[in-house]
Amino acid sequence: MKIVIGLLIALALMVGIILALPFLVDLNKYQDQYKPLLEDALNRKVQLKDIRLTIWPRIGARVADLVVLDDPAFDSSPFASLTSLDIGVKLMPLLSGKVEVEEITLRDPVITVIKNKSGVLNVSTIGRTGVELPKTPSRAPIPSTEGPLKILALLAVDRVSIAGGKLTYRDLSAPKPTEYILQDMELLLQSVRLGQSPSLHVGMLVQPLNLPVKLDGTFGPLKESKDIDAINLQLALGKTDFTITGKTAGQNASLSISAPVIHTADLPIDLPFQKPVDIKNLHITAQAQGQNLLLQNLSFQLFDGQVAAEGRVTSGSETPPFTGKITLQGMQLAPALNAMATTQVSISGTAGADLGVQGRGLSMPDLTKSLEGTGHVAVKDGKIEGVNLLQEAISILKVTGISLDNAKATVFSTIETDLAIKQGTIHVQRLLMDSHDFQATGGGTIGFDQTLNLAVSLNLSQDLSRKIAGSSPAANLAMKEGRLSLPLVITGTAQAPLYGLDMKGLTGRVQEQVQKKVEEAVGGLLKGTTKPEDLKQQGRDLLKGLLRH
Length: 549
Hints:
It is a single chain. It is built from ten helices and 27 strands. It has helices at 2-24, 31-42, 91-95, 148-155, 333-340, 364-370, 389-397, 462-471, 503-527, 532-547; strands at 46-47, 50-54, 60-69, 78-89, 101-107, 110-115, 157-163, 166-171, 178-192, 199-207, 211-220, 228-237, 240-249, 252-263, 278-289, 292-302, 305-314, 321-332, 346-360, 372-385, 409-422, 425-434, 438-447, 452-460, 479-480, 483-492, 497-501. The chain has a six-stranded mixed beta barrel. The termini are far apart.
């Protein structure tokens, strides 16, 4: 009985000593030893209010009110702060003299990421001891040679979690500064050890978009370098799911992104659509090589057609240079144009295009100034709703008695043209339009502001030409080889086009007819087949033929 009582007393003393350890051992006096190590690893000044041993729920330490100050080049306020940082260690290895971290928990972190007016992020200098900020602006974070993930891997942590918290992203480089807040953050990293592939779970709500975001998957295995052999993630932006795979090697990375369907109404970015559309079978393959981003393949289905693109963007300036190639096949033009803009004139048909472009910057003012390119566009079996070119021609000639099947539409079998883009203007070259009753050729310009300046020669069929010529004296001026050829000028805007007759072109036609008749008359006089009095009569007949008087 005495032995049992002695053991119970000894056990009670041990429990008492263990429970008293957090009060007996003051870890704050060791701040001068471990705080410089933490500051050196983060390349940031660190403030600690209190640090104590913990017994429950596991043996470890708790750091209260941890504050990591920002880089002085960005801000004097904290970069990150925590209500508490809990570090738990495994008991059995500790009894044998080894420290193995089991769990790290960050409670209610508040983090502020800033992009300054030069386009440099404050996170770009984390873990970069002695490295100066770049003098040239950067559109992307500069990769760090060290970082928190490597530190965690060296510590061999079983579990890293974030409970609650908020991250604020503030962009001061934009003409109008913007701010996004990630709230209700949750993060769970498991098996953060060298040689293992950690599993990742991230959840948050993005404001002011009110967009829920979730990210799950694995990456690794972790190495002492930054190389990651395999990245396998599932990203959910609202109701849209993406599959992300890839790898990293030094300053380079390769990435593949796919999604079965994207509802544009659910995306947090502005796209050039006035109405929600569905983008199907999205596939992106890209590589990052230093500051060069290579878009090897971008493909998706849109408006029943296939879109494919490739290109290159080089970061490191406020207006990053880019090049690209775009191919469209089988796209239905009517729903595409209706989704992008509401105009009085719409075009239907099946469209295809090949376009190569280059420029600098991504904003509309930058693109207007720098975008250049060439390409070819073709539309098959379509209709121009809202305007009938034949009706416009008939109205200009003041023709009566000619009825058309559809006075408010132009039906065509083919529209083809070459394009050249420069300084905010699309140059339309070698335009060809084929229809049952006419063929149109010409060219001109279309501005990025949708202003029109086109010259089109409308060549009517012989049957329709005879009908119109019989009803309009003025139409005879435009007759050539039995066909009516009208030089039209189209101005105004794409929303409200204006049509007129090119009088210079028409005057040239009159001169051609007069010159031909004069040459025939002079030839007749020289050969003796035409008498002077006959020449007078031919002159009167010529005027009557031209003016129908």
